TrEMBL record:
Family stated for the protein in its record: Belongs to the 5-formyltetrahydrofolate cyclo-ligase family.
Catalytic activity: (6S)-5-formyl-5,6,7,8-tetrahydrofolate + ATP = (6R)-5,10-methenyltetrahydrofolate + ADP + phosphate
Cofactor(s), by name: Mg(2+)
Binding residue positions for ATP: K3, R4, D5, F6, R7, R130, V131, G132, F133, G134, G135, G136, Y137, Y138
MF terms in GO: 5-formyltetrahydrofolate cyclo-ligase activity; ATP binding; metal ion binding
UniProt KW keywords: ATP-binding, Ligase, Magnesium, Metal-binding, Nucleotide-binding
E.C. designation(s): 6.3.3.2
InterPro entries xref list: FTHF_cligase, FTHF_cligase-like_sf, NagB/RpiA_transferase-like
GO biological process, alphabetically ordered: folic acid-containing compound biosynthetic process; tetrahydrofolate interconversion
Protein name, as recorded: 5-formyltetrahydrofolate cyclo-ligase
Length: 180
């Protein structure tokens, strides 16, 4: 199946399994905070999740409670992202994609955080390839990023192998955190 058709079908599946994903979120976060990569990270990058994704607000709160600096992506021209400190829910600006993000301040940008929690809608257990919402923002960033990458993967997002077309510019993740 091509990636566009797979993405559309997977978004429908995620919508239908929204409650199960929400229920899995706490257990996935627990596994993340127990991991060595989390324990060692001082700076964390994540995104503000939509209702069909693993919840990231508890992740942001856990990072802040542990004294970690949280960065969120700001979409930039040419399908680029800049990671900036999370200003908190009240100060976030909603992007053209409907995603809350920080306002851009060049001096605060950090493209070398210790750990990036990468969003996605589907993940392959065998290869760690992912499908995002389309646009290639994360793959462009990850192609240059030298640090650790991890994703929190609810059961509806996990596939034994990629059932979508993997392309030469797709970047596999280092670690998938699953319930099993």
């Amino acid at each position: 199946m091509n990636k566009r058709d797979f993405r559309n079908a997977q978004i429908d599946r995620l919508t239908a399994h929204q409650l199960e994903t929400a229920e899995a979120s706490a257990a996935l976060l627990d596994k993340l905070v127990q991991s060595d990569v989390w324990q060692q990270a001082r700076t964390i990058a994540t995104t503000v999740s939509s209702p069909i994704e693993v919840a990231t607000e508890p992740l942001i709160a856990a990072a802040q409670a542990a004294g970690k600096q949280v960065y969120l992506p700001k979409t930039m021209p040419h399908r680029q992202m800049a990671f900036l400190p999370d200003p908190g829910p009240e100060q976030r600006i909603t992007s053209a994609f409907g995603i809350p993000e920080p306002a851009y301040e060049a001096a605060l940008q950090n493209q070398s955080v210790d750990l990036v929690i990468v969003p996605g809608i589907a993940f392959a257990r065998d290869s760690h390839y992912r499908v995002g919402f389309g646009g290639g923002y994360y793959d462009r960033f990850l192609a240059q990023y030298p640090g650790h990458t991890v994703s929190l993967v609810a059961p509806v997002q996990l596939f034994d192998t990629a059932e979508w077309g993997v392309e030469s510019f797709d970047i596999p993740l280092q670690q998938l955190i699953t319930l099993d």
